[in-house]
Amino acid sequence: MMDEGVAIEQARIYAVLEEQVKQYACRNRHLEAIGTVGRIIGGVLALPDVLDQTLDATLKVMGMEAGEIWLLDTATQAVCLTRQLGLEPEAFGERTRFALGEGIPGRVAQTGEVVVIPDLAADPRFLRYKVVAAGFKTFAAFPLRAKGEVIGVLDIATRRMRVFTEDDTKLVTAIGAAVGMAVINARIYEDLRLTTKRLEASLEELRRSQNQLVAAERLRAMGELAAGVAHDLNNALMGVLGQTQLMQLTIARGTFSKDHLSGCLSLQERLIADATRTIRRLREAAQP
């Protein structure tokens, strides 16, 4: 009897140890999955790549065969299928949009609660009949949260009967929160990129306008200068013309003298020098 009792106790201890080993192994896989998702989200990747790689990591750690990510369109109050991985993409693509409260994705997006369906064929809430016809049995959907709000849904499915433990639910919920923040950060980055692009375009337009204003001001100043130059040149030319006419009249009368002629020529020289300086000013002002 003692031997039988010892054997029973040893079997019990072995079963307990085996269960603990399984739990530790499961938790290690979960921790590895969280680390993997963290590295994916922390990397320099475009949002579609982040979603695909995160969804792939989730399918692997959970042992599921297909998965989807839906994002909320606040304008239409509906969730839209954004990424899909795994088996039977055509079956899962039977519906790519659900209004809030409609179907499992719409319900999870509206309530923010996890939904686990152990038998799809027996649950009337599931509206994609091609997925059921393709043999999928277990389906689970989790909210994507960011800053306290549901912004989408992550769901996974398999053709096997699969029980979701509390640790399973906590893991995928944590992944959903990480994905939610990645989506928000990507949207913020895209908004900043577009804002920067608009500001750069506005700055370029401002520069063009400024150049046009400078050109217009330069033309106005040139116009004023040209008017002044025209006045000065006219005065100089009229002076030269007057002296020339005076010399002609003096010569015609035969009354000119050397001193008088020299004076007229000196005055003409000064007037021509003034005109030359005026023209030089105009040229300098025209330099860019």
Question: Can you tag this structure with a few keywords?
Answer:
288 residues; alpha+beta; Beta-Lactamase; 2 domains; 6-stranded antiparallel beta sheet
Largest beta sheet: what is the strand line-up?
A: 3-2-1-6-5-4
Structural class: alpha+beta
Estimated share of beta-strand residues: 5-15%
How helical, in percent, are the residues?
55-70%
User: Rg, please?
Assistant: 44 Å
What is the residue-mean pLDDT, rounded to a whole number? 79
Indicate the overall shape. Answer: rod-shaped
If you consult CATH, what is the topology of the largest domain? Beta-Lactamase
Give the CATH superfamily of the largest domain: GAF domain
CATH class type of the largest domain: Alpha Beta
N-C termini distance: 113 Å
**Helix and strand sequence:** HHEEHEHEHEEHH
The beta-strand count equals 6
Q: Can you name the CATH architecture of the largest domain?
A: 2-Layer Sandwich
- Stretches where pLDDT falls below 50 for ≥5 residues? none
Biggest sheet features: 6 strands, antiparallel
Number of separate structural domains: 2
Keywords: Coiled coil
GO molecular function, one term: phosphorelay sensor kinase activity
Protein name: GAF domain-containing protein
InterPro entries: GAF (IPR003018), GAF-like_dom_sf (IPR029016), HisK_dim/P_dom (IPR003661), HisK_dim/P_sf (IPR036097)
